[in-house]
Write a structure and sequence with these properties.
EC number: 3.5.2.5
Helix content: 25-40%
Number of strands: 17
Radius of gyration: 22 Å
Order of helices and strands: EEEHEEEHEHEEHEHHEHHEHEHHEHHEEE
Protein name: allantoinase
Number of domains: 2
Keywords: Hydrolase, Metal-binding, Zinc
Largest sheet: 8 strands, mixed
CATH architecture of the largest domain: Alpha-Beta Barrel
Subunit structure: Homotetramer.
InterPro entries: Allantoinase, Amidohydro-rel, DHOase/Allantoinase_Hydrolase, Metal-dep_hydrolase_composite, Metal_Hydrolase
């Protein structure tokens, strides 16, 4: 039996305004038809019997959000974040698809064995659809073709060392190593890069004040991002038939490099994160290590240019870089180590809050619903080769919907968060935009104030015959 979803504010994304209409969804979760007027809906209901109808009235009904940058640490570190809790957090935030980073789990997704461990662990636990990045490290070149053929969304690497113990499991790669590997890989691949490079002369931390945020911030200046983006843009111009994606950028000083590279015809896309758009270094109090991430949160003056880059399309994607950890690694346990920014694990937990964070702040910078749709629905689908069935409301697409009230506010508290670990820099903040329901392929996976049902998410594998994507600027 077909399902009918109604709303007076359906946002298709393909046009500027809302429509007051309905969406017919088949039993197998595919959009059968979009009705654009109340008259068309009434006519359909008059002529159709036994129709299951879900009327969301004045709620915004838009395509399900897609987050391409999520750390799910299972197997190996399920206590940091596992598949069940991560996908519940995604669903509660309006996300219907997430893409798992290859780091932090044991084993990492750098081998076929690692990918199989991920997929076998995920099955039967996920509440939204999940895809995977494959990892690219110095000694796994023999695994890359197999990972790509098996359906990872692309290959992800880092140009800078991360914190231990993950650094031993997922070491950084040099620009020369990356170039050599690129020469051996097919043209139609996607390479995602954590874009920080070590400084020739590292800046020492202020060991005398380890609980002060500035002691950490000074060790990772914008120049680390500038160096990395410069290197990647040069590679992108040498390898124009390969697609490069810059992950979780924080510094506005790299934007001119990105724009210039795109203007010269390279296949380059870039993302930033809600925390870089909404949090500021000068507001971070001593010992608040839940704010620590890499690249670091920078000053308020850094933010307007990032918002403008989203508006113009220089930055293509907004993604969470969701990376929670237990209280010990985050230095949040009571004792002498509490609040030590120099030792704390770098990662922010915010997957569930992404839509609300962006909506709370975007309008003061001249952005609106169309920019959320572009950067959190359409462009992420294009990036991961999902654009033929996800990322928009249209006939033949998966019935993935985010239903939310953009006018309603809420206060962030641990009891509303679905993530395994509740520490987040947004605790006690008041945000605007409340998700009321999330639908994945026609299944109601999340309904506000109700318990979760069965985990009905699917594992997504990328077709290897993908074409290079083109992003259209707004």
């Amino acid at each position: 039996m077909d399902l009918l979803y109604l709303s007076k504010r359906i946002y298709l994304g393909t046009e500027e305004n809302f429509i007051n209409g309905g969406i017919i969804v088949s039993e197998d979760g595919i959009i059968r038809k979009v009705m654009r007027t109340p008259q068309e809906v009434n006519s359909y209901l008059y002529n159709t019997e036994s129709q299951a109808v879900f009327d969301f009235e004045n709620m915004v009904l838009m395509p399900g959000l897609i987050d391409v940058n999520v750390h799910i640490n299972e197997p190996g570190r399920k206590d940091w974040e596992g598949f069940s809790n991560a996908t519940k957090a995604a669903a509660a935030g309006g996300f219907t698809t997430i893409i798992d980073r290859p780091t932090n789990a044991v084993p990492p997704t750098t081998t076929m064995a690692g990918l199989k461990a991920k997929t076998s662990t995920a099955r039967g636990k996920i509440f939204v659809d999940v895809g995977f990045w494959g990892g690219l490290i110095p000694d796994n070149s023999q695994e890359l073709s197999s990972l790509l053929s098996a359906g990872v969304m692309g290959l992800q690497c880092s140009l800078a060392h991360t914190a231990e113990p993950v650094n031993k499991e997922f070491p950084a790669i040099t620009t020369q190593q990356l170039h050599d590997i690129l020469c051996k890989l097919d043209d139609d691949i996607l390479i995602a890069v954590h874009a920080e490079s070590a400084l020739q002369q590292p800046i020492a931390a202020n060991e005398n004040e380890p609980k002060c945020y500035e002691s950490f911030l000074r060790t990772r200046p914008s120049q680390m991002e500038i160096n990395a983006v410069q290197a990647i843009t040069e590679l992108a111009l040498k390898h124009k038939k390969k697609h490069f994606h810059l992950l979780n950028l924080s510094s506005n000083e790299v934007l001119s490099l990105i724009k210039d590279c795109k203007d010269k015809g390279a296949q380059l896309t870039a993302e930033t994160c809600p925390h870089y758009l909404s949090l500021a270094a000068e507001d971070i109090e001593d010992c608040r290590t839940e704010f620590k991430t890499q690249p670091p949160i920078r000053s308020k003056t850094n933010q307007p240019a990032l918002w403008e880059a989203i508006r113009t399309g220089c930055l293509d994607v907004i993604a969470s870089d969701h990376s929670p950890a237990t209280a010990g690694p985050k230095c949040l346990t009571y004792g002498r180590t509490r609040g030590n920014f120099l030792n704390a694990w770098p990662g922010i937990s915010s997957l569930q809050l992404g839509l609300s964070i962006i909506w709370t702040h975007c309008q003061r910078y001249g952005l609106g619903m169309q920019h959320i749709y572009k950067s959190m629905c359409e462009n992420p689908a294009l990036l991961c080769g999902l654009e033929r069935f996800k990322g928009k409301i249209a006939e033949g697409y998966d019935a993935d919907f985010c239903i939310w009230n953009p006018d309603e506010e809420f206060q962030v508290s641990p009891d509303i968060l679905q993530s395994s670990n509740k520490s987040t820099p947004y605790t006690n903040q008041r945000l605007r935009g409340v998700v009321h329901a999330t639908v994945v392929r026609g299944f109601h996976v999340y309904q506000q104030y109700e318990s979760f049902g069965q985990p009905l998410g699917k594992i997504l594998l990328r077709k290897t015959s993908k074409k290079i994507v083109k992003f259209v600027r707004i």
